[in-house]
Amino acid sequence: MLACAVHDYAVDVVHLHGLDFLDYLPAGNIPVVVTLHLPLAWYPKEIFEIRREHYALVCVSPSQAETRASDHTGDARCLVIENGVDLDRFHPASGKGNYAACIGRICPEKAPHLALEAAEKSGMPLYLAGAAFGYESHRRYFEDLLAPRITAPHKFLGQVGGRAKRNLLAGAQCVLVPSLAPETSSLIAMEALACGTPVVAFRSGALAHLIEHGVTGFLVDSVAEMAQAIHQTQELNPAAGRRGAERRFSASRMANRYFDLYKSLITTGSTQVRTEALCLAN
User: Fold this and answer.
1) What is the distance between the alpha carbons of residues 69 and 59, in angstroms, rounded to a whole number?
2) Residue 4: per-residue pLDDT
3) Nearest 5°: CA angle at 236, between 159 and 215?
4) Distance between CA atoms of 281 and 259, rounded to whole angstroms?
5) Structural contact between residues 85 and 250, judged by C-beta atoms closer than 8 angstroms
6) Predicted model pTM
């Protein structure tokens, strides 16, 4: 399908996102941007060795870019453009509720059971939202380890989105991100900060870059530290999180950086036409 589109239309830039993008990388010298959303170790090292004039790899956080292994020594251009969220959709609430929130996939590596343990230690109700994918290990994790422990005052809300998700984030005293995975980014953390809600998270991958410790939230190394930080979030100014999101995590900032990258890759011969298109997109 992609090959047909490139053949049939005057395509300026192809922007790819899949882990398997090498299988359908367009032939020729059409400009290509590839956003690497997953840990770099998951990609074949050949992606860094492609010799192509108009080709750029994009990491979604500085911490992800720092994991580029020493054996990934190719000449491919690799930039960092952090993810962003629509700040017009997320706003601080007039007040905070008496609960901590945890939102995300229900699976062992995201470790919501650790958020539940921290909430129990702190005496703060946890409102857990998310869904287990169809994997047997994920289902058993939820049914055997997590569900039996979600008793009052804690709540399991299932999968939430739209206004319900925004209200949950904005009303929380804090948002817990207990992930054990090497996170390359965290949209939930960004959305929480846009709502003026502090984030308490383990130092997993990009989370250490997203959270300003003691300003927009806390970075912790254990369940005990997470429990203590839940209470400490009451001392943080919600406006600091919102200001941080406006400065670093706006979707418009992200989009403009991608447009600048597209523009830099487009061949000189078509600069005038394509610049007009990019300006319209802005």
Assistant:
1) 14
2) 77
3) 90
4) 8
5) yes
6) 0.88
